[in-house]
Amino acid sequence: xxxxxxxxxxxxxxxxxxxxxxxxxxxxxxxxxxxxxxxxxxxxxxxxxxxxxxxxxxxxxxxxxxxxxxxxxxxxxxxxxxxxxxxxxxxxxxxxxxxxxxxxxxxxxxxxxxxxxxxxxxxxxxxxxxxxxxxxxxxxxxxxxxxxxxxxxxxxxxxxxxxxxxxxxxxxxx
Length: 174
Prior knowledge:
The protein has helices at about 25-35, 65-80, 85-95, 110-125, and strands at about 15-20, 40-45, 45-50, 60-65, 105, 130-140, 150-155, 165-170.
């Protein structure tokens, strides 16, 4: 057997989002209401959540970046002037969820997945300022799921902006 040159396993350990500064409080409220993560830092320049006691197991960060708001506003403004841009953005909003940029995470059980999905669907209506939208749901046996064990829900958070705003919540059937 050939000797491996890989000394340690490579793995993702965090995701960072640049968001418009004025949205930081709303992003914090949204994440706190929707997702199971532990908030471990909340400062004007950094909002951080971890997925376990070990930061190396995964963390999510939000940073206030004014240019993120400038880009988001420009995209909205230019849509009406540029049919190709409008079409591309519309397609990204409608494309099959698994094909769009998204960040995936797994919850502990199908029961937790179902409970969180119900909460998200409720908050879609109760907290419209979050811009929450369940884009798609795939479950074993539905004819669309890629596996016979994985539950998947794609959740769009409009409060993050027009791009890179989707999370995939997964649970494994035991």
